Amino acid sequence: MSELVIQGAISGLLIGAIYGLVALGLSLVFGTMRVINFAQGTLLMVGMFMAYWLFVLTGLHPYLSPIVTLPALFAFGYAIQYLLVTPLLVREKAREPMSVLLMTLGLTLVLENLALALFRADYKTIQVPETSAVWFVGDYIISVARFWGLVALLVTVVALWLFLTLTDLGRAIRAVGQDRVVARLMGINDRVVFNYAFGISTALMGIAAAVLVPFYYTHPSVGTSFLLKAFVIVVLGGLGSMPGAAIGGLLVGLIEGLIGVWTQAAVAQVLLFAVFVAMLFFRPAGLFGVERK
Q: What is the four-CA torsion angle of 65, 66, 70, 71, rounded to 10 degrees?
């Protein structure tokens, strides 16, 4: 039984890294703009279709697809913020307008149905050497494709942390997230910062898509399940906390992996959402978040 538990923990941590990548984007937008982006999972789907078709049409390995998808998704996210979100912020003049949440939900429906019309509902998969490759460490099996997801999470967290702490734009994003009024007084254009934050958040889905496509199906509704997990992770790790999103993703994957050893996967989902509700009641700021007044 102990071998099964350890194997379940390993598998859970590896898939949890993918959850963490999705949660990073969600947490960045919320931490900067105080807005929940319901379209985050759908943007992951867009990234997965881009990586899939790049492989099918050009043979570009999914792990190299961010060369194309990162700038493309950044531009797409920047455009969404500039053309759709900013006008709502200007019109309502509210710190956290409900219309933005509803707009991202509507954008989700539009993008999912557009993908359904263009690519139909068939599950699309690809085969690369990493798809079925495994490493044996003693009695335990490590999926190569999922392992690279863990590596991608660690590299992305470090790169994002360096960006937010060492660059002028990164410090501006942090400043706006902490207090946008004071940031304006310091000469920071918060609307421009919002554009970049949303663009970066969307670009992160290109990284998550690159590590998902080799072993996960691509489908118009694929982002929904990841979005729900991302919400749990962001609340668990701390709203707006980058380390919290990464560690929260690993914790959620670990819970899934361990519970799956003893019972059905559905029970793990129930437990996860029970943790989600409990965190909202007893520590809304999450494990690594800071209470905001």
A: -70
